[in-house]
Design a protein that fits this description.
The complex is a heterodimer of chains A (about 450) and B (about 90). Chain A is an alpha/beta fold. Chain A folds into 2 domains: about 30-55 and about 70-190, Anaerobic Ribonucleotide-triphosphate Reductase Large Chain (Alpha-Beta Barrel); about 210-445, Anaerobic Ribonucleotide-triphosphate Reductase Large Chain (Alpha-Beta Barrel), CATH 3.20.70.20. Chain A is built from 15 helices and 14 strands. Chain A is globular and about 65 Å long. By secondary structure, chain B is of the alpha+beta class. Chain B has one domain (about 1-85): 2-Layer Sandwich (Alpha-Beta Plaits), CATH 3.30.70. In chain B, about 35% of the residues lie in helices and about 40% in strands. Chain B has 3 helices and 4 strands; from the N terminus they run E-H-E-E-H-E-H. In chain B, a hairpin with a 2-residue loop joins strand 2 (about 30-40) and strand 3 (about 40-50). The mean pLDDT of chain B is about 90. Classes of the chains: A alpha/beta (about 450), B alpha+beta (about 90). The interface of A and B includes residues 7, 11, 249 and 255 of A.
């Protein structure tokens, strides 16, 4: 029998601490849509997506209603378009992006991910067409998300691609200048990208996946913060136990939703992504968890240690609650989407360099950071190269989602709206790295003995 | 199938009566009730049996929420699995 106090506690988490399931993401394989005619390819992909995901939103809403837990987003990820469309005889994939946008609108989802390419070891003709199409594709569509994997621990870092990323991001920022360069918020550069990530903008349906899968991203930073507030200044053992127990509960809620969605949609359950994903709502913040541990602001000395501990214990609690944990699984530290991060940047407690250090111990990386619009292409490429190196050497996923806001400079504020939030524009180290970035070629993969 | 019904809001006469009448109409059996008043706020949790419910569970949750709106309260019905899953290893 359920105890009344447990029922009360769960409802308190949902009503007061913003517990929700962040996303149900349906991964769809589109390799079977390949065709040399781009119009035929588009038609086949559109039909497959709208058929497979026909009931995705309805089912998500039904589950939310019956269990009384909000399911914020319903989304779709597809096979990287650069691979699936490589037989198409065309010199632009913008039409494909438009079709994906239309399919996403048709099934009622807010984002579709997979306008992507994996170029860690080299760039195919199709990869290049996709890369060249991204700036326009992101400015003429609303729901399409794009990602490029430029490095991996096994292959090293493709610096030819890294060099192109700086220019790509600047062009995307320019083309979407009317919306505060919002196009860049839908584009992420990865090292060690994962195949079953349900979170945007980096979601795509990997080649090792089945035809269709349901992946669920949990949330709940507000719940963790509340639990930590209740233990006051207890020692680290108690702190870790509390995080683990809370992560267990959050993950179980996600697991229940995932299993139910999988059953009702007749699609196999893939994974639960344990990432604590913040929102701009006050209290639903990863930064505030770290501050509750005893930091004046996130960014203060001790931040990296606090984040490392949080990330590790979320995983420890989460893997106990679900046998199939995957995706990015950790703590996200996007700046514009997290009230505590925004406040810390405004107080000058948090810098780009400290964020880079934090990405060494948590999932993903430099995320949703607004930088001055006049930042050079090579500086952006240099920042990407640094972040990719952290991922490559440490055998983890890292990512960069920078927004060089057109026409704005450091200290100004930019608003993206909704879950994407708002951000103070952070200053960037502008000392030159052009010669390094322009060398061309590939940084070889690291050796895995002599760990120091 | 069991469900949890939560009622929260400013206290007034007849809350219990209205909720219970609705539950009886829908053929829902009440198994357990916990109710307190905290600073004028009515806080009740019921464990109910909905296996003989005369409508779909989705409609049941919507109608309860609507009833809540009419009397100025928040009423929520949830399937019990969410609670079981979160607290049992």
């Amino acid at each position: 029998m359920i105890s009344m106090s447990e029922a009360r506690k769960t409802n308190e988490m949902i009503l007061e601490n913003n517990l929700d399931v962040r996303t149900i993401t349906m991964g769809i394989n589109i390799m079977d849509c390949a065709d040399s005619k781009v119009e035929v390819f588009c038609e086949k992909v559109y039909d497959k997506i709208t058929k497979k995901a026909e009931n995705l939103v309805k089912t998500g809403d039904e589950i939310a209603r019956e269990f009384g837990i909000p399911i914020v987003n319903k989304r779709i990820s597809i096979t990287p378009v650069a691979i699936a469309a490589s037989a198409c005889k065309t010199d632009s994939y913008v039409e494909i992006a438009k079709m994906l946008d239309k399919a996403a609108a048709e099934v009622g989802i807010n984002f579709i991910g997979g306008f992507s390419a994996l170029v860690q070891k080299g760039i195919t003709k199709s990869d290049q067409i996709l890369i060249d199409s991204i700036p326009e594709a992101l400015s003429v569509t609303e729901r399409v998300c794009s990602s490029i994997n430029v490095g991996s621990t096994r292959s090293g870092i493709d610096m030819n691609a890294v060099k192109q990323m700086g220019a790509l991001i600047k062009k995307t920022a320019y083309l979407s200048r009317e919306q505060n360069s919002l196009g860049c918020a839908k584009f992420v550069v990865f090292c060690n990208a994962v195949e079953d990530n349900p979170f945007m903008a980096g979601a795509f349906h990997g080649l090792g996946e089945g035809d269709c899968a349901i992946n669920v991203g949990i949330s709940g930073p507000g719940v963790v913060r509340k639990a930590l507030e209740e233990i006051h200044d207890a020692d680290f053992e108690v702190l870790c136990e509390t995080i683990k127990k809370t992560a267990f509960k959050i993950t179980r809620a996600g697991q229940l939703v995932a299993k139910e969605a999988s059953k009702r949609l007749g699609v196999p359950f893939g994974i639960i992504d344990l990432s604590l994903a913040p929102t701009p709502v006050i209290g639903d913040s990863v930064a505030q968890i770290l501050e509750t541990m005893g930091l004046e602001y996130v960014g203060a000395p001790g931040t990296t240690a606090a984040l490392a501990m949080l990330n590790d214990n979320v995983k420890k609690g989460g893997v106990m609650a679900s046998s199939y944990v995957g995706g990015l699984s950790g703590a996200f530290i996007p700046v514009s989407e997290d009230y505590g991060m925004i406040r810390a940047v405004e107080a000058k407690a948090l810098t780009l360099e400290k964020l880079e250090a934090m990405t060494c111990v948590c999932s993903v990386g430099l995320d949703m950071i607004a930088i001055p619009g006049d930042t050079s292409e090579s500086t952006i490429s240099g920042i990407i190269a640094d972040e990719m190196a952290i991922g490559m050497i440490n055998n983890k996923t890292t990512a960069v989602r920078l927004i060089p806001v057109y026409g704005k400079s450091a200290g100004e504020t930019v608003t993206f709206g909704g879950l994407l939030g708002y951000a103070p524009i952070m200053p960037v180290n502008n000392f030159d790295c052009t010669v390094f970035v322009n060398r061309g070629g590939r940084i070889p993969p690291p050796i895995h003995s002599f760990k120091n | 199938m069991k469900a949890i019904v939560t009622v929260l809001g400013k206290d007034k006469v007849g809350i219990m009566a209205k909720v219970c009448v609705y539950l009886a109409e829908k053929n829902v059996n009440i198994l357990d009730v916990s109710q307190t008043i905290i600073q004028d706020y009515f806080d009740m949790i019921m464990i109910v049996d909905v296996s003989k419910l005369t409508c779909s569970f989705g409609d049941f949750t919507d109608e309860l929420a609507e009833l809540g709106k009419q009397i100025g309260l928040m009423i929520k019905a949830q399937r019990e699995e969410i609670f079981k899953n979160m607290y049992r290893v």
